[in-house]
Write a structure and sequence with these properties.
The chain has 300 residues and is of the alpha/beta class. The chain folds into two domains: 2-114 and 231-298, Bordetella uptake gene, domain 1 (D-Maltodextrin-Binding Protein, domain 2); 115-220, D-Maltodextrin-Binding Protein, domain 2, CATH 3.40.190. It is 41% helix and 23% strand. It has twelve helices and nine strands. The protein has helices at 2-19, 34-49, 66-74, 90-93, 126-129, 144-154, 170-178, 188-196, 217-220, 241-256, 261-264, 277-295; strands spanning 21-27, 53-59, 80-84, 104-120, 134-140, 160-166, 183-187, 201-205, 229-237. Strands 1, 2, 3, 4, 5, 6, 7, 8 and 9 form a nine-stranded mixed β-sheet that branches. Helix 2 (34-49) packs across helix 10 (241-256).
């Protein structure tokens, strides 16, 4: 009788665990980027707070996020994609090797706007670049960093700017610190730790807003980059609309209980709107209309 009762109890535990739906959050970046640690904290909190879904991070880095996006579309069952503003850029550069943006719907936005930075260990100002015969500049091909790199290249007509392609935006910053690369285009949140330690200098930034970490932001802001800001957000398949709303509620509640999010998403350099689904959808629609105009001159 005791053995039978034990078996029944074990069966109940197993049945309960299997009742939880595994949900991958596909990750298109390198696992070592700053936001990865933040997302792991949100996932852990989301799993602690509810027992319907088990969220887990599935790393599918490369191809400008296309691998992770297509993995999300092809997954059998609910799935999420954590991505950045480059999500809207990739299909315009490589339409045949990418994905259809309309197949995705927004879930949450972790950061609506943060500036991109051009960083260097060797140089400290943009003016110095104009005096160099040749410089090397890192960029993640198929992303916003490639656009900014090409824009900078056009602003230095007397300097040979060699754009070096990378699969991510962290590795080139490490190469800049090591002296293997002159410049890199990076997100503020990735480079901030090295900027504060003096290992990287900010030569230029996108946008025109002043930020706590960059008092001279406006003087360093590069003309033509006002609209190019970065964002981090989560999307789901459009066909999973009900799940997307459910995931929105779960991740929103979880993120509000993770104190480590500050200063990672510090409002002084990352506009962090309240997690309202309608506003998130409007934000998504605005970007979807904005990028084709911005990228038109780069698309042949």
């Amino acid at each position: 009788m005791k053995k039978l009762l034990t078996a029944l109890l074990l069966g109940l535990v197993v049945a309960t665990s299997f009742a939880q739906q595994p949900v991958p959050i596909y990750w298109p970046f390198a696992p070592g980027v700053t936001v990865a640690g933040t997302m792991r904290l949100i996932i852990a909190e989301a799993n602690r707070q509810q027992n319907k879904y088990v969220f887990y991070m599935d790393i599918k880095a490369g191809a400008g996020g296309a691998i992770a996006a297509n993995a999300t579309l092809n997954h059998k069952g609910p799935a999420l994609l954590y991505t950045s503003s480059s999500f809207f850029v990739r299909p315009m550069f490589y339409p045949n090797e990418s994905y259809d943006i309309d197949l995705f719907t927004p879930v949450t936005i972790d950061c609506a706007e943060q500036p991109w930075v051009i960083v260097s260990n060797k140089y400290k100002t943009l003016a110095e670049l104009r005096q160099q015969p040749r410089i090397t500049l890192g960029a993640n091909f198929g992303s916003l960093t490639e656009i900014i790199a090409k824009e900078l290249q056009s602003k230095l007509p007397n300097t040979e700017v060699v754009i070096v392609g990378y699969k991510d935006i962290v590795t080139p910053s490490l190469d800049v610190i090591a002296g293997n690369l002159d410049l890199n285009v990076d997100m503020t949140s990735n480079s901030l730790q090295w900027i504060e330690k003096g290992k990287l200098h900010v030569l230029g930034t996108t946008g025109t807003k002043d930020y706590k970490y960059f008092p001279s932001m406006k003087s360093q802001s590069m003309s033509g980059f006002d609209g190019l800001i970065g964002s981090f957000f989560v999307v789901a398949r459009t066909s999973d609309g009900n799940f997307a709303r459910e995931a929105h509620e779960i991740l929103t509640k979880a993120s509000q209980n993770v104190p480590e999010l500050v200063p990672m998403f510090d409002s002084d350099y990352c506009v962090h709107p309240d997690y309202d689904y309608k506003k998130t959808a409007d934000h998504y629609a605005r970007w979807n209309k904005y990028w084709p105009v911005t990228l038109k001159k780069y698309i042949k």
